[in-house]
Amino acid sequence: MMETDSAGIELERPGTTSLRAAFFGVWFVDLVATILFFTVPYASELNPVTVFLHDVFGMVGVVLAALIYAGFVVGIGSLLSRPFDVGFVTGAVLMYALFASNNVVLLVSREPLLAPIVP
Predict the structure, then answer these.
(1) Where are the transmembrane segments (predicted)?
(2) What angle do the packed helices 17-37 and 59-79 form, to 10 degrees?
């Protein structure tokens, strides 16, 4: 389905309906985990933009940062032609799934799924 924004640019929803649903599912899990990072003493958010927006706006800043990231993914995917949009959104889903899995494991077990390699 093609949509036209106020600037006259035709946007197409990126990927398939199930792919978009998967993206927003893992994005939401990551959002909730990130919010929890600011409430537990043993985990911290590493993204400086999210931390900055949290410092300025509190928890609303965390949600704002997440909405900005999702907007970038949807916006970029809308501007790409098929099959590039499907590949891009699939990559975003895989990355968010990895981040969300790591965040949930960290919150539950206090140990990250992916630990940094320190010599």
Answers:
(1) 21-44, 56-80, 87-109
(2) 160
